[in-house]
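Propose amino acids for all 854 sites.
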């Protein structure tokens, strides 16, 4: 006999605690707290439903005491406290907890006021028809595995053969060790539609499934604000869904005193305690945190919920209601955590994964049911074949049986004489004399033929996955038709769905960047239009060594594409740039964009919509040009995106939007311009990282100064000639006095003019171009500052190197020929010069007025 010392096993305390706690945690996770993704049930719920099924408590049978069911579950399957079992049973019968209750309760099963249910000895229950049809049907057909119960005396199913995704239908909540689940309930009809969509298109995305399953459908109704929380939960498994009760503002009539307005609450968010809500409102009123409420009363009855919140005469109903949403559980968040057991392992599932796991389980269940039915049919047909053999040799078999010494010898002789199996011989010996009539023999033959057809059909089902999927669709469709109800929860895109830009007016703005890298946004309305030749207003408070570098107008909702000299593009929304006054310097652009110190922004393009039909035309300092689809820049990373590949020493300078049929006009510092088409022949589209082709042949010491796009309609309308020889030295070129458009040429000394577009014939790319303007100063002090295309109704914003801005109407600048020098557009101080020119297009209202005037 061993001593006590020998029985002691030394062990490390840390290892023992770790192992024991892990075993306990897994026991809680798998055996109690988390539902199975296949039937959506925890073990306690599964055992309750199976015990009621074994007791025969179907929807067409009388109610039985809940205490009887609880005792059955405790005695056979669930060795825990009776309170845990009864609480689970009660919840499955509450129509305010389950979207489609699984148990039909009779008696007091609690209320939305958090009233407790009556004791189990007073209440009664039975299964609902949905539970029998959708959860327990075919359970005897070997569709699922059974295991021993806690003492090995009974068998219980490890999962129920559910025909619908019950986990999503009624949802689930539970707290395990180190993890928790909280799955919202959904609409049965929508779930079936989503399942069928997945079967028909296995590659469907979560977004595609959301067309059929738009969101949770809570049993208490209410509203869901916005799709963002739902989408996050369906795509990632976690999300916060904003729920709101349904409230209306009505006028309450009072006899003998003035009528009052009142807020009537008819639906509450899921899992909201009505009594606690009323108590919370009363507490806020007493603490004067909510003003304007004179009385609160609960008028709910068996016909529905009705909470009446009477208001004072001077109260604003909408303000009071908004405060109720903000300060009380009348608006709450449902923290979705879509965690469930898949192959006994907890997994965070997306919407498609939920349906895919269920679909795989349903395919397995139907396969096993079909195999069971096939085996039973083959066994029965095997016996019928033996009976048919007996009927064919009836007299001989009767004689054989009569002369046999006993049953065993008769069976052996039958098996030997007629090549029968033991089962067939037993069936013949057990056959009653009445089966020997002609009518009974015909029934046997008919049953045999039917079984042959059935066996062939069952084998075809097992051989074809498509047949199994058809059965799933048919059976799910039947349940939908029989049990589906309309959606109770309304999903609306309101405050919770408002995008940031929805809170900002889409007004015209001026974006300004200085040479030292300061950026700011100003309303265009800050600058009133001025007459030609005035000095303008200061637009920026700059240091003496700073100047204006970039300058454009856009709308606040536009996406701004910032192109750097290194060929990298960055993107921010216009409204994200801080608004500044005329005299403010702005903020450093490095606070908005992750650009290196040595990098400089050279072009900014506002984009309201990234279309596949538009292109970005890019022009480098070295004269390379390329065309790339605008949609290629719709998703720009935070640290930028390569827009063009550059040669050593080259820089990206200009970027404009264009279509495939437009044309481009490019100007050089010495007053030359080239005009060519953007079609496939002259400029075919290429990828983001390509370098491009030559745009223009430059004279010695010349450089490009800008480019602009001419729409196809303008070129066609003006019938611009192509590749005709025109004397560029002529001072008397014909002038077209019409409605435009014109090519605007502004020089650094403040001179400008409008030249009819028709004077710039279309040429082939890479030519030297035509003379666009001549200069007042012949000593090279004056140069072309900007070249662009303008219309009659446009306005210009001119900015000088010292930050002086003038806003001027285009029509104030005279129309002249290519060979003219222009007129004074802006008077400049000494050592000041025009730095940039931006176009201000008319607003929508101005365009409508112009169209009406025409």
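Proposal:
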């Amino acid at each position: 006999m061993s001593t006590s010392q020998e029985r002691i096993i030394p062990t490390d305390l840390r290892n023992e605690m770790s192992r024991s706690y892990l075993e306990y945690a897994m026991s809680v996770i798998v055996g109690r707290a988390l539902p199975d993704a296949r039937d959506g049930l925890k073990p306690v719920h599964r055992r309750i439903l199976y015990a009621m099924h074994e007791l025969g408590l179907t929807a067409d049978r009388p109610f039985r005491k809940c205490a009887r069911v609880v005792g059955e579950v405790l005695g056979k399957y669930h060795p825990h406290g009776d309170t845990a079992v009864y609480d689970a049973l009660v919840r499955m019968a509450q129509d305010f907890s389950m979207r489609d209750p699984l148990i039909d309760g009779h008696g007091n099963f609690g209320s939305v006021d958090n009233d407790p249910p009556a004791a189990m000895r007073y209440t009664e229950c039975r299964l609902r028809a949905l539970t029998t049809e959708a959860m327990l049907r075919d359970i005897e057909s070997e569709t699922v595995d059974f295991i021993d119960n806690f003492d090995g005396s009974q068998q219980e199913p490890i999962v129920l053969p559910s025909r619908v995704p019950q986990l999503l239908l009624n949802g689930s909540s539970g707290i395990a060790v180190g993890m928790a689940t909280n799955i919202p309930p959904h609409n049965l009809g929508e779930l079936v539609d989503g399942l069928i969509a997945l079967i028909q298109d296995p590659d469907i995305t979560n977004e595609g499934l959301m067309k059929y399953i738009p969101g949770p459908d809570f049993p208490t109704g209410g509203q869901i604000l916005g799709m963002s929380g739902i989408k996050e939960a369906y795509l990632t498994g976690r999300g916060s869904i904003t729920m709101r009760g349904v409230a209306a503002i009505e006028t309450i009539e009072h006899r003998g005193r003035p009528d009052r307005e009142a807020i009537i609450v008819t639906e509450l968010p899921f899992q909201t305690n009505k009594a606690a809500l009323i108590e919370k409102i009363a507490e806020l009123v007493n603490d004067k945190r909510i003003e304007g409420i004179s009385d609160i009363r609960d008028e709910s009855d068996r016909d529905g919920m009705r909470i009446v919140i009477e208001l004072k005469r001077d109260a604003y109903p909408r303000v009071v209601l908004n405060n109720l949403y903000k300060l009380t559980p009348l608006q709450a968040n449902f923290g979705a955590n879509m965690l469930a057991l898949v192959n006994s392992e907890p997994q965070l599932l997306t919407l498609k994964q939920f349906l895919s796991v269920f679909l795989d389980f349903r395919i397995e269940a139907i396969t096993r049911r079909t195999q069971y039915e096939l085996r039973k049919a083959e066994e029965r047909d095997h016996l019928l074949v033996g009976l048919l053999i007996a009927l064919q040799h009836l007299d001989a078999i009767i004689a054989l049986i009569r002369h046999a010494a006993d049953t065993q010898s008769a069976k052996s002789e039958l098996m030997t004489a007629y090549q029968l199996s033991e089962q067939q011989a037993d069936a013949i010996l057990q056959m009653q004399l009445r089966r020997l009539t002609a009518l009974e023999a015909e029934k046997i033959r008919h049953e045999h033929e039917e079984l042959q057809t059935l066996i062939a059909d069952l084998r075809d089902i097992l051989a074809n996955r498509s047949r199994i999927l058809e059965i799933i669709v048919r059976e799910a469709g039947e349940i939908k038709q029989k049990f589906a109800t309309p959606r109770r929860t309304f999903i609306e895109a309101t405050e919770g769905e408002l995008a940031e830009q929805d809170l900002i007016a889409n007004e015209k703005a001026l974006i300004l960047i200085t040479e030292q890298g300061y950026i700011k946004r100003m309303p265009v309305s800050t600058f009133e239009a001025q007459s030609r030749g005035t000095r303008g207003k200061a637009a920026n408070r700059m240091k003496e060594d700073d100047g204006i570098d970039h300058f454009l107008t856009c709308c606040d909702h536009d996406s701004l594409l910032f192109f750097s000299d290194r060929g990298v593009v960055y993107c921010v929304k216009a409204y994200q740039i801080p608004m500044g006054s005329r005299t403010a310097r702005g903020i450093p652009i490095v606070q908005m964009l992750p650009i290196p110190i040595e990098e400089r922004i050279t072009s900014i393009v506002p984009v309201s919509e990234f279309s596949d039909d538009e292109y970005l035309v890019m022009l480098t300092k070295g004269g390379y040009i390329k065309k790339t689809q605008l949609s290629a820049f719709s998703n720009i990373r935070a640290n930028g995106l390569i827009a063009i590949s550059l040669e050593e020493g080259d820089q990206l300078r200009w970027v404009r939007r264009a279509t495939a049929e437009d044309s481009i006009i490019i100007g050089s510092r010495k007053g030359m311009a080239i005009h060519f088409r953007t079609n496939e022949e002259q400029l075919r589209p290429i990828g983001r990282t390509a370098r491009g082709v030559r745009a223009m042949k430059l004279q010695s010491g010349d450089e490009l100064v800008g480019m602009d796009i001419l729409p196809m309609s303008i070129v066609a309308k003006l019938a611009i000639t192509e590749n005709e020889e025109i004397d560029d030295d002529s001072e008397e070129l014909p002038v077209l006095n019409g409605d435009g458009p014109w090519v605007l040429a502004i020089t650094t000394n403040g001179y400008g003019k409008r030249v009819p577009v028709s004077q710039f014939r279309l040429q082939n790319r890479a030519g030297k171009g035509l003379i666009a303007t001549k200069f007042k100063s012949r000593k090279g002090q004056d140069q072309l500052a900007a070249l662009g295309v303008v219309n009659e109704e446009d306005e210009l914003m001119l900015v000088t190197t010292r930050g002086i801005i003038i806003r001027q109407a285009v029509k104030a600048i005279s129309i002249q020929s290519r060979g003219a020098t222009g007129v004074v557009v802006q008077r400049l101080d000494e050592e000041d010069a025009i730095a940039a020119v931006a176009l201000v297009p008319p607003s929508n209202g101005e365009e409508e007025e112009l169209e009406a005037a025409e």
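Residues 496-500, 729-733, 844-854 have pLDDT under 50 and may be disordered. The domain at 246-329 is CATH 3.30.1360.40 (Gyrase A; domain 2).
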